[in-house]
Amino acid sequence: MRSRSIRWRLTLFYGVVFMLAGAALLLISFLVVRETLVSSEVGADRLVVDAYGFNKEQVDFVRNIPVPEPPTGRDAANVGQVIEGVQQDIRTETLHSLVWFTGASLVGLVGISLLVGWVAAGRALRPVGQITARAQEISEESLHERLSLEGPNDELKELADTLDGMLTRLEDAFDAQRGFAANVSHELRTPLAVIQGEADLVLDDPGATTGERELAARVGSAAARAESLLESLLALARSESTMANHEAVDVVELAGDVVAERAEAADLAGIELELALGTGVVEGDRWLLERLIANLVDNGINYNRRGGWLSVEVDTFGHDVVLTVSNTGDQLTAAEVDDIVKPFRRAADRSRPGYGLGMAIATSIATAHGGALRVQARREGGLDVEVRLPTRDADDPSRALPDPRTSTQPSPRVRAPVAG
């Protein structure tokens, strides 16, 4: 519980205000009672005269009757002084009892006021809690949802409606951004295909000069790189938008196909591939999931070292399909690991292929499927990348993801090296 929450501050404010008001009221009551007692003592002789018909001389006579010395040692020469002493004792005892009784009452009432203030502040701030909870549930992937706060048309309702309007504008902005990236990627494919075709014609022309062939090769290579970048942008835009395809996808089968397709490239790079497959079926977009695995495997090959290894594991743990891609490579700091999952961020060695989109696309695809991607640097160099996706028969998509290292009885896995 946060000690500086608005509810706590309102409760303390109510309690302090009530305490100050109660203390002021009790002080006034104390002064009034004390003044009343003093006035009654001063006017006692007059009251005796009026009530019992004694005259002043008779009252004075009684007051001046001498008394023996009391055993308590208190000075009292006559009956009048005894009466005054008794009156003073009664006044002191009455005021003392008043202070204790009213003080205890004030403490009890302050406690009650704090409790009532806590309840009242909670009821008053309940719509704020609802707004906060709904706002925390809304993310980039669920901008279509709204707070839709119900209740009287007050300041909190106006705040919720304002946030709903802001979410609408954000959703429009995100849709426009994603649509722009996808449309640009599609529109640029045609001119790039034309450029690639022209370059291929020059290369196939037996009458082309050596300079023309070299220029055509450079142009063709540049066009191929541009087309690869557009494919990456298209995958990123598609993963960040609402998925149109929802089907049962066997992640084990995808991983096996992807690794088999890249076995030759890994062999040429001097990298040993290892594949450990269990079971794992999820629901989602097959093309996007294949792209996710391909990006992780490609990164593991491109940013590895000769003589290193690359391991791909897939298995089901509880309600999650866990894909783990581990590889050797350069040692990375925690800041560099956090950086490589961002778009257009690459490792220090920029001579290797790629545009810094592989990890960003993989993260976006995992999020779009209700999962998560975690990257961790290996102490010996390289990365451990873990992707967790909800299984197709998962009952609660919002459950906590289990740790595969603590899960029991995993499905049987087949582990074998992949030959190039």
Q: Which SSEs are present, and which pair or pack?
A:
Blueprint: H1 6-42, H2 44-52, H3 56-63, H4 79-137, H5 155-204, H6 210-240, E1 247-250, H7 251-261, H8 263-268, E2 272-277, E3 281-284, H9 286-302, E4 309-317, E5 320-327, H10 334-340, H11 358-368, E6 372-377, E7 383-390, E8 414-418
Parallel strand pairs: 2-4
Antiparallel strand pairs: 1-3, 2-8, 4-5, 5-7, 6-7
General description of the model:
The protein is α+β, with helices and mostly antiparallel strands and 420 residues long. The protein folds into three domains: 6-137, no CATH class; 155-237, Signal transduction histidine kinase, dimerisation/phosphotransfer (DHp) domain (Helix Hairpins); 243-418, Heat Shock Protein 90 (2-Layer Sandwich), CATH 3.30.565. The protein has eleven helices and eight strands. It has helices at 6-42, 44-52, 56-63, 79-137, 155-204, 210-240, 251-261, 263-268, 286-302, 334-340, 358-368; strands at residues 247-250, 272-277, 281-284, 309-317, 320-327, 372-377, 383-390, 414-418. The strands form two sheets. It has a six-stranded mixed sheet. A hairpin with a 2-residue loop joins strand 4 (309-317) and strand 5 (320-327). Helix 1 runs antiparallel to helix 4, helix 6 (210-240) packs parallel to helix 11 and helix 7 (251-261) crosses helix 9 (286-302). The longest helix is centred in the first third of the chain and has 59 residues, at 79-137. It is rod-shaped. Mean pLDDT is 76; it is low at 350-354 and 395-415.
